[in-house]
Amino acid sequence: MALMHHLSTSISSSSSAFLGQNAFNSRTQKVSVPVKNRGIPRCVATPPTEKTVYKTKVSRNENMAKLQAGYLFPEVARRRAAHLLKYPDAQVISLGIGDTTEPIPEVITAAMEKRSHALSTLEGYSGYGAEQGEKQLRAAIASTFYRDLGIAEDDIFVSDGAKCDISRLQVLFGSRVTMAVQDPSYPAYVDSSVIMGQTGQFQKDEEKYGKIEYMKCTPENGFFPDLSTVARTDVIFFCSPNNPTGAAATREQLTRLVQFAKDNGSIIVYDSAYALYMSDDNPRSIFEIPGAKEIAIETSSFSKYAGFTGVRLGWTVVPKELLFSDGFPIAKDFNRIVCTCFNGASNIPQAGGLACLSPEGLKAMYGVIDFYKENTNIIMDTFTSLGFNVYGGKNAPYVWVHFLVEARGMCSVRFLRRPTWLLLLAAVLDLAVKVLLGLVPLVTGAMS
Amino acid sequence: MALMHHLSTSISSSSSAFLGQNAFNSRTQKVSVPVKNRGIPRCVATPPTEKTVYKTKVSRNENMAKLQAGYLFPEVARRRAAHLLKYPDAQVISLGIGDTTEPIPEVITAAMEKRSHALSTLEGYSGYGAEQGEKQLRAAIASTFYRDLGIAEDDIFVSDGAKCDISRLQVLFGSRVTMAVQDPSYPAYVDSSVIMGQTGQFQKDEEKYGKIEYMKCTPENGFFPDLSTVARTDVIFFCSPNNPTGAAATREQLTRLVQFAKDNGSIIVYDSAYALYMSDDNPRSIFEIPGAKEIAIETSSFSKYAGFTGVRLGWTVVPKELLFSDGFPIAKDFNRIVCTCFNGASNIPQAGGLACLSPEGLKAMYGVIDFYKENTNIIMDTFTSLGFNVYGGKNAPYVWVHFLVEARGMCSVRFLRRPTWLLLLAAVLDLAVKVLLGLVPLVTGAMS
């Protein structure tokens, strides 16, 4: 937390009006997100000399033991909460998860109210839903996002969010696959891979896990990996628009990626959770690239479109054409996972999701997106006018700014060794410049 | 489906008024549950000679390949749907999942309506919630179900259901643990164990997976395993009241089970999803047994209490006192799983869950439970009066009836070899006698 405090001070001293609250699309007055009780269980750390503590004879899962620190975002939230407890008046600029702050449009919440009420009536009550999601919603997702792409209703699996589906996909793949990931990128890909036992130990010197292929994405390569240097892996996680750099791959780049996967017989897990934020004419879906249905899975979410971060609703597309090496359809195994390890998304959010995809819902959803895009523009303009190199932002609610950090200045001890790229997650939180300050390498590997 | 058709015929011929609709607490007129589109993806099974099908070079997860057939309940639903498609006028007695049919009490849905609406307002909007659940709900669960048992708010992890938590626990344990399970029992324990690679191959002759310790629970042993014959395993799944036999373990039996686990250093995963259905004075929670906090995890759900099967809300208790052999708290690893592989239950159902635990909500919830218990009694009385041996029912919405099935009578070819126990899941579906006819051994091992 000290690092955030320093940053906050540093920003104020650079420019007193810098990122001032009034410059933003900000409807609330709160400076920091409400402090949540993350409830990290207190460890029983009584020294054995004082009392004999009973231990089971079950060995801890060695993969869990490989994980470094806590999952990134709860860890940031925990430090923020601890800091605020110590300094209640601190004006903390949250560097945590890209949370939403805009209310959900009423046309969408009204549908959820209606479904909630219906559940109290004989006619409107329903019990277990289809594990894959309600037929109408699956059809609406297929026709809204994948029209003319050959993706059918039954290729869509509705879920409680893309993050949860990423883990379910890892369970499906099992421990023997190898994986590649953009560096930097959303931490859930790597962490879930570690948990499933796909990786080696964490290498402290490189800040990378063994056996993961980290695909460097920097301004030097236009945030797109040099595929000629990337080793073949079974699975390639690819997030575009990227969280956190904000870079969106072009049609030409994605065509190369699909060809790369096809040549290697790899599966791309394509995370398109920010697709509707794109301003440029890049593909919104990997399935816009010919042949992608034979090598790709796509996961997406209503979280950042309609403010569903707490409501929990997403989907994953597993085309029938996607086959394991023995010809077995991957969708069939994913269906088995969804039926065995999940019971479908809550029916009330599904009613909300269907409302999102009505003509009025879509219009309202774009209103929310535009609000966050305006914030993104303000942040980009501000940093640009201050002379920083600014990337991202145009096709995503994420802005990536190059800071050359001086030793002992505003950076944590962990990164004194070298100039560091600091990450700006912007706009999704109303007035916040969300800087994942130096924490990113903990999870996604070193950035130079 | 043919087997259900036979059963239906058979039942009708035994007694024309047998389980007639009017005998039940039945508010709806539907005979079968609405046919859901389970959307099992169609397999691409084109012979390679006809067309060259592209296959990735990714090997199918060998653990997925071990799984027999589909997950039990979607498979039953699929067969039911197929049958109804062929015979639209068939009066199918559903033998599928124990679904709820009673509307959710309005005091509970009103809270969900209110929360849905609040999400459209500046004051009421919230984004990502705590992965472990809302503080108020965790506190209410702790004080409602675990008062005086030494279980605190931060020992409770709110989830989208017990089934989902069972899989998350399996991911936490990893592939190297061994497991024991009641035979028969809810199929998710075994299937998730297979998926995680804890088991050997399926042994067709025994109808069991290798490396799983099946603990026989029959009328002969009072549906409680003879622990002197049970091998030590790392994890013991124990469901009480049991799904599907309806048997609930007594305090004395659970005390023996806890001692057995303690002697072996095992972890009990105790599924208490039907605890509130108990009429006898058996423990409602494993934590009523002294010392259980050092060896047990408990999972439960609002599904069968408040009709939340489609709303999705449950919880899991992982006490701080529960430690791996190296002294590491299991709750800390479960917290990591919940943060990395899950993003918390939907906020709207959580508002509903909190309303369930208000004085009015609790009263309404017990009303729903009493409705299903009445149905259970009718089924028990009916079968008893027909001369069958009837078990369960008193402490659970499940009735277990002994049928001596004649060869080529009403039983599927698969079970012609021997007398078979047929399972009656009753009462949760209004007028349905839910008979898991012979399908159970597919999943939970042979029953004599």
Automatic annotation (TrEMBL), chains A, B:
Keywords: Aminotransferase, Membrane, Pyridoxal phosphate, Transferase, Transmembrane, Transmembrane helix. One of its GO terms (biological process) is systemic acquired resistance, salicylic acid mediated signaling pathway. Residues 91-403 form the Aminotransferase class I/classII large domain. InterPro entries: Aminotransferase_I/II_large, DapL/ALD1, PyrdxlP-dep_Trfase, PyrdxlP-dep_Trfase_major, PyrdxlP-dep_Trfase_small. The chain crosses the membrane at residues 421-443. Pfam families: Aminotran_1_2 (PF00155). Signal peptide: none annotated. One of its GO terms (molecular function) is pyridoxal phosphate binding. Its cofactor is pyridoxal 5'-phosphate. Belongs to the class-I pyridoxal-phosphate-dependent aminotransferase family. LL-diaminopimelate aminotransferase subfamily. This is Aminotransferase class I/classII large domain-containing protein. It comes from Liquidambar formosana.
